[in-house]
Amino acid sequence: MNVSSSTLSLTVADVDASRDFLCTHLGYRVVMADDGFASLTRGDAAIDVVLLRSGTEVLPPEQRDRQASGLILALTVTDLAAQEARLRAAGAPITMPLREEPWGERLFQMTDPNGVVVQLVEWAAAADADPAGNDETAPWS
């Protein structure tokens, strides 16, 4: 299997609020949009994001009233400290300050107006190490 791209679909109460947050603070841009829908991309390796308004009929009935919760949209970035400073200066809602975990992960979190947690991550481990533990010989590669 070859995965050519990845998209995270989030059901939220206010599509415009999440769209504006991702575009303003994280450099996403709108690819297409309609009432209660927005498709966002960045043009780099970041995951694309689709936002759907809760209650929309394009979703199966058992999914319509669910809203994004209990997940973290994590983006691995470079120059994490500079990103945190930039976002603080821009008034972004940083809900967990920059910290380093014992295993070498540096991170901070923001929360968008719909409660979606966005985590920016940078690995403090050696550049030649693969912190995600990707194995090129895995059966799905």
UniProtKB/TrEMBL annotation:
Domain of life the protein comes from: Bacteria
Gene3D superfamilies: 2,3-Dihydroxybiphenyl 1,2-Dioxygenase, domain 1
A matching Pfam family: Glyoxalase
Residues covered by the VOC domain: 4-123
Protein name: VOC domain-containing protein
